[in-house]
Specification:
496 residues; eight-stranded mixed β-sheet; Neuraminidase; mainly beta; disordered N terminus; 4% helix; five-stranded antiparallel β-sheet
């Protein structure tokens, strides 16, 4: 799929445009940001052995779970990363980044090196791509790499000094033989290029358990903590990992994302949950804070809102036994002028229909507003067609809050699952759902063409960036399994 692109000169004009009004946003362009798999000739990871020994299914050219950032030193330089060739039971053959230096008009995929066997490393698979630019233009990529025939796993950071055109060799921020590292993110400090922060969750107990997440989760000794590391010298070295937040026994965290407030307070948002006798007994969107650049963190989490963390989440309206994998994690953003924090997530409370919720904090994450539903999915359609999921949030230069998500409003009884991607925005009193306006981004496309990885999988998260008051959505669409192309990454420009 390829659409009309926005001319580079037009993008430049948009970047230099003045403050936007609170009026509607327009979809200006959509382009394909990914390309054909670079791993088609790779034999290092022995696909046939993984398929025969593990019962795995490989989806070549599936490119889910994108994340992106914009270079503060050159706003026309955007870089995103995504999984390349997704496996059915976890991870991908490698990760690819794609860079643009014309505001998203054209894209150039590059393999992130040394993080999987197909990219010159030692691990069978890699997952959970995340990228972040420092204010001087240095770019950091953080990934999870693991061996599927061993419990050796690592959180690896690569650095680019040329806007994503090439990458240096990886450095292990964390590595152990637990098979228990997961869901990392990286945040470059927007006020000091020497400081970069990494966070992830780690199964601490029980030790020696098999790889199965459910096996650990069902254990009486289950503990899953949030961990943290940082560099204070621009990525030359990283401090030894330490516990960021300990939820206690029979409890865990997942999905840590750090934001930096204008006073350089760090706020880490995540899901915290407790389980008892194999049942979730409580889960919340939550945050903790650090006022010393990550040396210490608050012991008690601020609970933003309860969520239903039971599995599954969204389901296929045409066949509810089929799961829609994604939308299980919250996303967070900060307005670097006002210091306001924003959280978005999808949840099926109270009626088992997933919706997009929004909350904001004006005091650095200490207190949060009551959640409000902000997706504009019609409610006069069949119940399961009302599901909305995988929310992503970002803040424009003028304070406009933008959120993207998927829904099924255009689904019919025809074969396939019609899915659309949407953008909603608010300028001002965002705790009033009436103040959110909607723009169609992409679709409908058939979600059932996506890789099936414990559910039709486009990603546990997607990407969204801002260039001045322009929003750029970096996201996944299912394409065609028959054409050996389950999904591609796209970039859409949304202008005020």
């Amino acid at each position: 799929m390829r659409f009309t692109t926005l001319a580079a000169a037009g993008v430049t004009a948009l970047v230099l445009a003045g403050t936007a009004s609170a009026g509607p946003y327009t979809l200006s362009s959509t382009v394909t940001a990914s390309g054909p798999t670079p791993f088609s000739a790779c034999t290092a990871d022995n696909v046939a052995l993984q398929e025969s020994e593990l019962g795995s299914t490989l989806y070549p050219n599936a490119e889910p779970e994108p994340r992106a950032d914009v270079n503060p030193a050159n706003p026309l330089n955007i870089v995103g990363a995504y999984q390349q060739d997704r496996w059915s039971d976890g991870g991908a053959r490698g990760l690819v980044s794609s860079w643009s230096k014309d505001g998203g008009a054209t894209w150039h995929p590059v393999v992130i090196p040394g993080i999987s066997k197909c990219s010159g490393g030692i691990y069978d698979r890699s997952s959970d791509p995340w990228v972040s630019f420092a204010p001087n233009g240095d770019l950091y990529s953080l990934s999870l790499s693991f061996g599927f025939f061993s419990l050796d796993n690592a959180i690896l950071v690569n650095k680019s000094t040329n806007g994503g055109e090439s990458w240096g060799a990886p450095i292990a921020v964390a590595r152990d033989d637990t098979g228990g590292l997961d869901k990392q993110s990286i945040t470059a400090d927007p006020f000091d290029s020497n400081f970069v922060y990494a966070a992830w969750d780690r199964f601490v107990s029980p030790p020696g358990f098999p790889r199965s997440d459910l096996g650990r989760f069902h254990a009486a000794a289950y503990v899953q903590q949030a961990f943290f590391s940082r560099t204070t010298n621009g990525g030359v070295s990283w401090e030894p990992p330490h516990v960021l937040y300990n939820p206690g026994t029979q409890a865990g965290t997942i999905g840590s994302i750090i934001n930096v407030l204008p006073d350089r307070t760090l706020v880490d948002g995540f899901i915290v949950f407790a389980n008892h006798k194999r049942q979730i007994r409580g889960a919340y969107v939550a945050d903790v804070r650090s006022t010393d650049l990550g040396v210490t963190w608050s012991k008690k989490a601020t609970l933003i809102a309860p969520v239903d963390a039971s599995f599954p989440g969204p389901t296929d309206p045409d066949n509810p036994s089929l799961i829609i994998r994604g939308g299980e994690l919250p996303d967070f953003a900060v307005d670097r002028v006002s210091g306001k924090l924003y959280a978005v997530w999808d949840d099926d409370l109270p009626d088992k229909v997933d919706k997009i919720y929004f909350s904001e904090s004006s005091d650095g994450g200490l207190t949060w507003s009551a959640p409000v539903k902000i997706n504009k999915t019609p409610t006069n359609i069949p119940t399961l067609d009302q599901q909305a999921f995988t929310a992503t949030v970002k803040v424009a230069a003028d304070g406009t809050v933008g959120v993207t998500y998927y829904d099924f409003r255009n689904n019919t009884s025809a074969p396939g699952l019609a899915t659309d991607y949407w953008f909603v925005h608010c300028h001002g009193a965002c705790t009033n759902p009436a103040n959110w306006a909607e723009t169609h981004v992409a679709g409908p496309f058939d979600e059932e063409q996506a890789a099936y990885a414990r559910g039709f999988f486009l990603g546990d998260y997607e990407g969204l960036v801002t260039i001045g008051n322009v929003f750029g959505a970096f996201y996944d669409q299912a394409v065609s399994r028959a054409a050996n192309n389950p999904s591609d990454v796209f970039y859409s420009t949304l202008t005020p």
